[in-house]
Design brief:
The complex is a heterodimer of chains A (51) and B (505).
Chain A lengths: L7 E5 L2 H9 L3 E5 L9 H10 L1
Parallel strand pairs in A: 1-2
Chain B lengths: L1 E6 L6 H12 L4 E8 L2 H9 L13 E7 L1 H19 L4 E3 L14 E4 L3 H13 L3 E4 L6 H14 L3 E2 L5 E4 L2 E4 L6 E8 L2 H13 L4 E6 L12 H11 L6 E7 L3 H13 L4 E6 L12 E3 L2 H11 L11 H13 L7 E6 L2 H14 L5 E3 L7 E2 L9 E5 L3 H4 L10 H11 L4 E9 L13 H5 L5 E7 L8 H10 L3 E3 L2 H17 L2
Parallel strand pairs in B: 5-6, 6-7, 10-11, 10-12, 12-13, 13-14, 15-18, 15-19, 16-17, 16-18, 19-20, 20-21
Antiparallel strand pairs in B: 1-3, 2-3, 8-9
Helix pairs in contact in B: 1-3, 4-5, 6-9, 10-16, 11-16
């Protein structure tokens, strides 16, 4: 919606959408997203016990 | 022989995963291949298929499972890895986290999020905290998270488009499954993705263009969310110099929330048009907002508000009626049922509303839970006149959404065509840079091979989309398919055929 400005997009997720942005000539960045590290359930139980 | 490869802590999105499995499956000598994240459900599924997944594989681990002779397994695995590595080294700017970007040196306007729903809210908050708008394609975000994120956005003056926003267009750039519609003066705010896209593409078809499409997500007009995004978007477009006419697009929603949105729209200086598909007939009584009852009508009204001459797209009602008679009269009597195989949720709904209005006495079946049709006992088996939304979860849990991969719908089409009672098939096609590169042409040979069935289709797309919609339209027509100019016209034609077919029984 900025006058004459292309939208500049950070893409978090589907790689296909990132490629679609690049193909349109838009300025785009891709986040190499990784899920948050899983807390081991046993450790969680122990923590619950002691904290 | 079956072998399982596990890559620890490697996240890959679902569309890429399907691409990897598909490519490996095409390799000669491969009996089967699967590519999944190691969630408990996926591990169980792979075990059912006879794969032995190592203990300790978790939801953050990538699994590539291959059934082939031992000599071919390694080669197939390498092909999968090559696809993943190629994709992760594509050009552009790659960052580890939104917070790792120095926005002063390297500015952005918006974060587009399509992670699994459980992870989306954290990324939305991150984006809002950095002063950026969000476009959220992810579904399965909890209502509580949606409300909290939208409230935070409102505090910060930033839009949260979605969750579950399928279509967007801002600054001339198409987001998610949206089309590259020509720039112009109609600003569209849509709680329904395919609905907003249809209005935008029809506006282009009539020689005008759009300033933007702001998707709100389907739950924005629920009592819990209260239309936060739609109200903010209204204010934004009221102040946007490029927008001369505002068009609101939604399915019927909570009466109080619709009322509040229309109250605000009534106060604006700019003309506002609105369609709430399936809304009560008196919704717009006494209002300044110009109400429409179909997506096509919303587009026509919006173009009319810009002034000048309006040429409604496609065939006249008389032409459709004559065409329906010609198509129906040539059908053998035993081919008596209509099957609608849709990929756009709103298109499914719009078609059912119209069938219900025009032929209320004819029973309809659907996989959707709706007042317009009875629910199919088994969504995988049609009966009678059946209208299916193949983008619904019961189908996409097993295969990619039909806008990303036509395979699911092609299989269902073959199934319907094997039923000797199928007489009329209605299809919608959606194009754009973010969807399948060739969503239409795979249907052409199937249509051509079945001259005993009548096919009706509409293409929702823009001329600048990479799929060449004009060429695809010509190919469909050459194969014997009737191509209409809007979903409404497809449904109108099909309903007219239905009335005629029922009448001669």
């Amino acid at each position: 919606m900025q006058e004459n400005a292309e939208l500049r997009v950070i893409n978090v997720g589907l790689q296909d959408f990132y490629e679609a942005l690049l193909a349109q000539g838009a300025k785009a960045a891709q986040i190499q997203w990784q899920p948050p590290v899983q807390q081991d359930e046993d450790i969680e139980e122990l923590l619950d016990k002691f904290l | 022989m079956k072998k399982v490869y596990v890559l620890k802590n490697r996240y890959v999105d679902s569309v890429t995963l399907m691409n990897v499995a598909e490519k490996i499956n095409q390799v000669e000598g491969i009996f089967g291949a699967e590519s999944d994240m190691g969630t408990p459900a996926n591990v169980a599924l792979l075990s059912d298929l006879g794969y032995d997944v190592p203990q300790g594989t978790g939801k953050n681990d990538l699994i590539i499972a291959i059934d082939a002779d031992p000599g071919d397994q390694e080669r197939a695995y390498q092909i999968g890895l090559d696809i993943l590595d190629h994709r992760s080294t594509l050009g552009g700017n790659v960052y580890s986290d939104v917070n790792a970007i120095d926005l002063t040196a390297d500015p952005y306007d918006l974060v587009q999020i399509s992670l699994p729903g459980e992870y989306a809210a954290a990324e939305i908050r991150k984006a809002l905290d950095r002063g950026l708008d969000c476009f959220v394609f992810s579904d399965n975000v909890s209502l509580e998270d949606e409300l909290a994120c939208k409230q935070l956005g409102r505090e910060k003056g930033r839009l949260v488009m979605g969750p579950d926003a399928g279509v967007g267009l801002l600054g001339g750039v198409a987001l998610a499954a949206g089309s590259i519609v020509r720039k112009g003066a109609v600003g569209i705010i849509g709680a329904s993705g395919s609905g907003a896209q249809e209005v935008a593409c029809l506006v282009e078809h009539m020689g005008q263009g759009v300033s933007c499409i702001i998707g709100t997500g389907g739950r924005d007009l629920s009592p819990q969310i209260g239309g936060i995004t739609m109200l903010m978007a209204l204010e934004r477009l009221a102040n946007d110099p490029q927008t001369q006419v505002i068009c609101l697009v939604s399915k019927v929603a909570d009466p109080a929330v619709m009322g509040r949105v229309l109250d605000e729209a009534d106060k604006l200086d700019k003309p506002v048009t609105a369609v709430f598909l399936g809304a009560p007939k008196r919704l717009f009584d006494g209002r300044r907002v110009h109400g429409a009852w179909s997506l096509e009508e919303a587009a026509v009204l919006s173009v009319a508000m810009l002034g000048g001459e309006v040429h409604a797209p496609g065939r006249t009602r008389g032409q459709l009626e004559a065409l329906a008679a010609a198509l129906a009269d040539g059908l053998p009597r035993e081919r008596r049922y209509l099957r609608g195989l849709y990929c756009g949720g709103t298109f499914t709904e719009e078609a059912m509303i119209l069938f219900h209005e025009r032929c209320p006495q004819i029973p309809l079946y659907s996989n959707l839970d709706t007042v317009y049709a009875s629910r199919l006992d088994d969504p995988h088996r049609s009966k009678g006149h059946a209208i299916l939304d193949l983008g619904a979860e019961e189908f996409t849990a097993e295969a990619p959404h039909p806008i990303f991969d036509p395979a699911l719908r092609l299989r269902r089409l073959e199934q319907e065509l094997a039923d000797g009672e199928t007489g009329v098939v209605v299809l919608d096609f959606i194009t754009g840079p973010g969807v399948h590169a060739d969503p239409i042409m795979p249907f052409v040979p199937v249509i051509q091979a079945h001259p005993e069935v009548r096919f009706i289709a509409a293409i929702c797309g823009a001329e600048a989309d990479p799929q060449d919609i004009s060429g695809a339209r010509r190919a469909l027509e050459a194969a014997g398919c009737v191509v209409t100019d809007s979903n409404y016209q497809s449904a109108w034609l099909a309903a007219a055929m239905l009335a005629r077919m029922e009448g001669r029984r």
